[in-house]
Amino acid sequence: MNRLRNISLLATILFTMTCTACKDDGNMPEKEQEITDEISPEISCPEDIMLSIGALDEEPTVDYNTPVGTDNNEGAITKQTAGLASGEIFPEGTTTNTFVVTDASGNTSSCSFDVTVTREATDDVTKPYVYGNIAPEGKKWVLVENLSDEFDGPELDGSKWHNDPATDPFGWYGRPPALFDPENVAVADGNLRVTVLEYDQPKTAKGKSWTHGGAILRSREKAVPGQFYECRMQANATVMSSTFWIAFTQNCNNGPKRKLELDIQECVGRVHEGTHSWAQKWDATYHSNTWRHARSCDVAESESAPKKKDLEEKNHSRFFVYGCWWKSPTEILFYLDGEYVYTITPPTDFDLEGHITMAIETYDWNPIDENNILKTGSEDKRTTKYDWVRTWKLVDE
């Protein structure tokens, strides 16, 4: 009897548990079905933005309405994946700005728009090629005509430039094997052109034999502290140099006894396996330096304070604008394509007068190799071009 009662109780419990999981109508529930979101979020970008700035204006700050995506469900996230954010400084050229929205299910949508900044060209230059105004308050820049040249004439202006080492104040004929040869200098197509080459027959000068030709030019007027010096130059594509600098005379008897050198830009057109390790980037560099050279009546060892910026482009790939504000004897600022790059504090006071110099020469640390184009290359590849040289001084407004 007790056994029958226990079986009945167990059956009642099982029936109760089963019905607890039943619907009201006694049927079992269907399995829940998952809901899949196949609808992509939406996002829209502003129209393309076109800006034009002056030839020497600073690059602009650009504000725009930042895109934010929407979705039929909560949880969508918008991120910028390319370009620059609103309120940042946009460079010259085209910047593509891309935004991507992702919803909670992983669906994505994107949009893009361009910000294009163009710089106006102008021949009406009234200050150094520097973005913004760097003149001190109450001052303005004035062109120094005797130390400036647009090279628009039919020939070199001999009233402004020496191009023969036999008659300039230095009498330096070059570093062998390349002779500073005035025959390699020309003015054409609005440029000063120095074409380097390998001679068919060596030339003799200053008691030496020279197998290759370069050139050197120096200003007749003297450069002084406080002024701004700049040039627009495209380097040649050979192992030889392209330079823009200020050279200083020196004399142990008559003075000045210090031998100074202010290098604004010094580069080469090509490097190779034989180039010294420290110069492997000298074909894509902005390299400046200040020197106090060793002399018997001055310092026993040379002193220098160099600085450089590696470039993404080769120096011979296009024209670059190299600038230097010799602000004071102890502070010299350097600019590239209108932008400030660095300041050099020289190893001694640069308080002497010098000569603007453009020298195209050979170096023993970047020697002429078997694959050079000095004999076989086109004239264009072998030519350093100067579009202009300009010097500015500050005067009261």
UniProtKB/TrEMBL annotation:
Transmembrane segments: none annotated. Pfam families: HYR. Residues 129-397 form the GH16 domain. InterPro entries: Beta-glucanase-like, ConA-like_dom_sf, HYR_dom, Ig-like_fold, SRPX-like. The keyword Chloroplast does not apply. Gene3D superfamilies: 2.60.120.200, Immunoglobulins. One of its GO terms (biological process) is carbohydrate metabolic process. Residues 1-23 form the signal peptide. GO terms for molecular function: hydrolase activity, hydrolyzing O-glycosyl compounds. The keyword Cell wall biogenesis/degradation does not apply. It comes from the Bacteria. Keywords: Repeat, Signal. Residues 36-119 form the HYR domain. Belongs to the glycosyl hydrolase 16 family. This is HYR domain-containing protein. It comes from Marinoscillum furvescens DSM 4134.
